[in-house]
């Protein structure tokens, strides 16, 4: 160790630089070597071969035993024997595999002869020869003083030069240097411990030497406005990490309420306590900052109802009814026909102005659907329905309840010029039409002036469900009225207000069908995006963020990249600009849109059982290349390999268990 590196710290501006620990470390190594205190040294070996990306080091059993082992995946530091006037610095290596030495074949031959002869003892010379081996390592980058801030360390993903191998020494870092490696890059603001460094799944200490117990820190600023992925098999800790992140964002924004969070809770584990596991929910621990919207009210959880307005979202809710009917094995043909009808969205009516016939037919389908809902007992706000945008350029009627068939049609069916003006009259109107059609299906009034049938297949399916030849008809869907509320459109506005106030909103979707989860995910995601986009345009974003949490993301996000205008693709491309962050969990990276994956900054990866999935991750994020074997073979719950926006390389971590404390 030369004095020039020490002199670097004699300048006042460098007194507090963390790399002072490196100089002290190398001095201690020299002292222990001089005193022959080899058991106290952290020296691992010498460099046999070095390149810009890889380095091969030679080591021996006593060196490895003194540092408690050098397992695959462990971090080593490589420092020059002489800094030659340069500031102190070191290169970071990660052990990837064993490597052959120049004498490997001779050593194997010696082993063969020894075992063949069953020799119980080895002479000193042979024992020394056989204890040497080599390790292949990956060069991750270099740590050196930040030239713009004397109190900081800087990291580069490459090295500035490579000199002859004999000029380097390799060490296992002590606690102070390990802290520099793991935590020095993390933003100092809003830090919190996510877990402890854990290089191997095997917890048995080597040579009875305990490995350093180092906390791994992350910053909540790395999640606000960023995309975070949780990958791995179920029951291995993905939800636990989500709770820790959400809890930390609540705690670090206690004063300014600068982050609102929306959690799509598909299993009810964030909203509801689990006494069996002695687990307090996120809501219970943060009652003043959390509110719950639930499809089904739970007795011990305060919540507001989460409902749909079936009248105002015909295109989405008929799919939900289809899912419910299929789940309940409602298999009659007229029910199956109804469930397969596709309805237009009300907001799409005005865009059909270039095709008047299509516009009129679309409006009538929605009105038939309204009649079915009303007959099934779904309450409605009729005054509001009269005002929503059904009327198009091809629609000539005084109100939204009039299908506006021509006068000859009305006269033939009703023997008068009858126009319905409310939902009761609309039900009677379509029932009368259907009975007339069944009695006289070939009547000329059912053919338009252009020669096309007045009713297409979907019309007939809707009318056949309203007035079935046999069966319960519309009453079949009465059982699903619990999901409907004529004022349901207000819940989105209420949730956005909570988010703007820095609250954490939990949507309890436990036991809901996939189509209902999809509906609420799509609806609220679009509302959040629109809301933040409007604030951005008005220059009102400020320092406020909205964080979204999605579980079983493969059921929500489109896998292909064909629709780049969808809300999830827009989250990926524009979310940061609009202060929208998202955390999504799934078992398999390959099930998620590549557009979203390519824009993801933070990764938490637990055990995967598919080699294809591990390789897909490595192709997506190069920092995971070389770690596939460990991901495939380690499956301890909570044991993850993480990469955050602050970190420049993957860190193996045993994640802390979420243990919230109830706050009054």
From TrEMBL:
InterPro entries, alphabetized: HerA-like, HerA_central, P-loop_NTPase
Annotated Helicase HerA central domain residues: 215-309
Pfam families in UniProt: DUF87 (PF01935)
Protein name, entry field: Helicase HerA central domain-containing protein
Source organism: Desulfatibacillum aliphaticivorans
Taxonomy of the source species: Bacteria, Pseudomonadati, Thermodesulfobacteriota, Desulfobacteria, Desulfobacterales
